[in-house]
């Protein structure tokens, strides 16, 4: 029987290899799979390339992963969000590589990766430094830039409700990158707030069909980064098992 | 190779579908093509939990409904009525083919007019000048599914080989076929040969070779298919 | 106040110009906006290019539009569906142009057109006659073919529920091409079975956001082609107002 | 052009937002950028039904909620809390930017560091060697929205022109700006000139020309802005 639910967060992130390319959902703090990222810190994989819209806040979630020295490169649209001091320090010390991609192109590259599209032309970045060195082509008198897809080893995504076969729904603007990141990874790992039996989500209301999901861990009361930061949390390896951050 | 008409030998169409069904791993995401492939679901072993995908926009569906509970707007790619199951989801065509092209479908079953020893598939057009072309989703499935499997009679109604050195009909996809279930044998396509893995009862490797127009060799574990009467 | 609901079908299709490129939803008979197509026949636009997965059945809906001599060219994946005699006769008489596009490429071309993508590479058709003359490129050792987007003047789409601002839901496998066709037309015209006030569809369950929809006509009891054919309907101009086909 | 610091003249920031709001047609789909553009919604005339789009995945939203009804997971692109309205819809990032790039957004309001007389926009980076780059959705909005409008002070804090002959900062988009609401004037960008359509009370065309580093000309119907105290 198909059953994608794993025993816990640690089980769900087991086996992530050093050097992996990992998509992490979220826009600002909304939709970030913070508990999965903490489990990834404990799991120990390093030399990672991370795709996220931002580059982490405070010293929790993605910022904590950066602080733990696990990230070689980050691909994002906007690293300067609320309190990005961990990223800033690593970047200024040349200890992390940064690739800035416009937000819509980032989304489209991920969607292309998940959809078997080899590359696509977009007007976005034409005439800007981000188009330098890229192939271009004219469509209807406008210059378009060729962009490659992003295909990942893993995706870490936060959803609202998941069923046994991996069908997902999201909560309001926390949907953001979740559905497309689920599509673009060899192994997609989600944390859900609510877990239901197959059939517990109306087939018309499924946002991510189960085919795009591999592993599910239940986090019934996920925390937002701002809530952790307000409690003074600075996540370091093993805190999760000590119950500090959860 | 022979053009002589002969009595049908080997497996029945139901038995071919049964053989294909036995080899579907538990938990697979499976696209069933139109025609003979649709039979495969009927023979899926009870211990397998498999989700069927249909390219018109549904994942996870059950068999045809009873006559009195048909919903005309709930159909598969063969335009036949199907049913919801626990875990069904609906999505639009672009997402459906993202599943296919993006490599998310584990196995798809297709019919074939010709399969070449390099894995090329022709199944959409004879190339005849007066034929009205139409390809549907076959070309997307051929390149996208992780494993592309053909269910086909080994030879045409005229007795001509369907397994050939090079396809003469226009291609559906290049080097895309992984496995063939014919009425004579179960055959893997391995770079440049048809590798016979199992033979229908009463069928010899020599007979398969005779009825095949490309390189044939025996698999390491060549055996006879054990299959119920169907 | 935004109000996309029109008085009736005729009002909804008013102004469609000769020579337009029109997307028509549906797969087989499911999801076809048959009543809108009949209104288009009465409206009179001709020399049309039509995009639909198929090429019409019997002498109703799209087949009736073809029979009325209004279609110069059809772009579809599979013209040979149930009883395609109208198309077959026109095609054999060289009175209609046919462009066959694989179903997934057709969907992706429409999605690209609606998404501001200039062109995209796909492995589909590589090595086949449908790739002849098209530019190719290698990705990870595989050959991909460059495909252009489809941008349309109009889309005719059937949905289940529509609200005042154009948010839509669909019914089961009738969703098929609807959501992407709504995206890819300058003017998107939908027929809905149920019409509700804004807010009548849960924001999480909206499939097509209202931004993609321009005009709505209510057809409370739409007919499937097979039902019309069973009644012996062969639609000709003006039948709608005579109450024959509706 | 002058570098002399002077008392703030012309419109207040609230008045600039008010002016921009008056010109939004009824029924528009509007993307409000982060910062000053967020103020525009506050001054929308009561007779206009406008849907706001935020690129993080929502169409149709209302103002900030009361402190006690904030939902931290319902935010706009500026990461500020917003509210649902009748007709709200949610969607993922690829669909959200399909709306933007696909030309479905009628108007977007952006901030600017520099705007060139040909419509080029620079608003994401000074190009300084030690700056940490970050672009967000601005480049997509610049190419995608049907009308791209800038709200900006006419000169920098140091008194340097922001409306220039050619941008010296790295571009956000080429020839993309249609209109500018500055504290001094409402200006259309017409191929190769800044066309002044309306002047803030007490501001002359000569003064605008003086504080602009590109071609300036008067529109056919140049008039003085009538705007409430805000």
Describe the structure in your own words.
The complex is a heterotetramer, with 2 copies of chain A (246 residues) and 2 copies of chain B (230 residues). By secondary structure, chain A is α/β, with parallel strands linked by helices. Chain A has a single domain, classed as Glutaconate Coenzyme A-transferase. Chain A has helices at 9-12, 34-43, 62-67, 85-92, 103-115, 178-183, 225-230, and strands spanning 21-24, 48-51, 71-76, 97-100, 117-122, 136-139, 142-147, 152-163, 168-169, 185-196, 215-218. In chain A, strands 1, 2, 3, 4, 8, 9, 10 and 11 form an 8-stranded mixed sheet that branches. A 3-stranded antiparallel sheet of chain A has the order 5-7-6. Chain B is of the alpha/beta class and 230 residues long. Chain B has a single domain, classed as Glutaconate Coenzyme A-transferase, CATH 3.40.1080. Chain B is 14% helix and 27% strand. Chain B is built from 4 helices and 13 strands. Chain B has helices at 13-22, 93-101, 138-144, 205-210; strands at residues 29-32, 51-54, 58-62, 83-90, 107-110, 114-116, 121-122, 147-152, 163-164, 179-182, 185-189, 194-199, 216-224. In chain B, the strands form 2 sheets. Chain B has a 10-stranded mixed sheet with strand order 4-3-2-1-5-8-10-11-12-13. A 3-stranded mixed sheet of chain B has the order 7-6-9, with no helix packed on it. In chain B, strand 6 (114-116) and strand 7 form a beta hairpin. Chain B is globular. In chain B, 53% of the residues are buried. The mean pLDDT of chain B is 94. The chains are: A alpha/beta (246), B alpha/beta (230). The interface between A and D is large, with 51 and 39 residues. Strand 5 (117-122) of chain A pairs antiparallel with strand 5 (117-122) of chain C, so a sheet runs across the interface.
């Amino acid at each position: 029987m198909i059953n994608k639910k794993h025993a816990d967060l640690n089980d769900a992130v087991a086996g992530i290899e050093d050097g992996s390319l990992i998509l992490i959902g979220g826009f600002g703090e909304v939709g970030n799979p913070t508990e999965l990222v903490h489990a990834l810190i404990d799991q120990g994989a390093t030399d990672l390339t991370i795709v996220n819209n931002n580059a982490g806040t405070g010293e929790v979630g993605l910022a904590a992963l950066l602080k733990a020295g696990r990230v070689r490169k980050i691909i994002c649209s906007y690293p300067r969000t609320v309190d990005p001091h961990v990223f800033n320090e690593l970047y200024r010390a040349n200890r992390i590589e940064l690739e800035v991609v416009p937000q819509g192109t980032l989304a489209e590259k991920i969607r292309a990766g998940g959809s078997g599209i080899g590359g696509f032309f977009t007007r976005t970045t034409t005439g800007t430094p981000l188009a330098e060195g890229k192939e271009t082509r004219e469509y209807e008198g406008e210059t378009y830039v060729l962009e490659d897809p992003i295909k990942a080893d893993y995706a870490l995504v936060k959803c609202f409700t998941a069923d046994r076969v991996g069908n997902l729904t999201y909560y309001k603007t926390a949907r953001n990158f979740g559905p497309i990141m689920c599509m673009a990874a060899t192994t997609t790992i989600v944390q859900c707030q609510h877990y239901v039996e197959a059939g517990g989500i109306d087939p018309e209301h499924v946002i991510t069909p189960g085919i795009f999901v591999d592993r599910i861990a239940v986090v019934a009361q996920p925390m937002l980064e701002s809530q952790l930061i307000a409690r003074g949390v600075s996540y370091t390896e093993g805190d999760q098992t000590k119950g500090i951050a959860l | 190779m022979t053009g002589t008409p002969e009595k049908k030998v080997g497996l029945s169409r139901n038995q071919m579908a049964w053989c294909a069904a036995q080899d579907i791993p538990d938990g697979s995401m499976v696209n069933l093509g139109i025609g003979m492939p649709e039979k495969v679901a009927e023979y899926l072993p009870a211990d397998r939990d498999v989700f069927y995908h249909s390219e018109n926009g549904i994942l996870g569906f059950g068999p045809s409904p009873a006559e009195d509970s048909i919903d005309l707007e709930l159909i598969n790619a063969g335009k036949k009525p199907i049913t919801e199951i626990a875990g069904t989801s609906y999505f639009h065509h672009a997402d459906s083919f993202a599943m296919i092209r993006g490599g998310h479908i584990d196995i798809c079953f297709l019919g074939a007019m010709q399969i070449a020893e390099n894995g090329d598939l022709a199944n959409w057009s004879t190339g005849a000048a007066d034929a009205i072309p139409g390809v549907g989703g076959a070309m997307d499935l051929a390149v996208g599914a992780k494993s592309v499997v053909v269910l086909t009679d080994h030879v045409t109604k005229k007795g001509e080989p369907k397994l050939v050195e090079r396809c003469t009909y226009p291609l559906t996809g290049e080097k895309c076929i992984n496995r063939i279930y014919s009425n004579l044998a179960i055959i893997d396509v391995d770079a440049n040969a048809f590798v016979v893995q199992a033979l229908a009862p009463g069928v010899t490797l020599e007979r398969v070779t005779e009825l095949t127009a490309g390189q044939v060799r025996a698999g390491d574990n060549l055996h006879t298919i054990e299959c119920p009467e169907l």
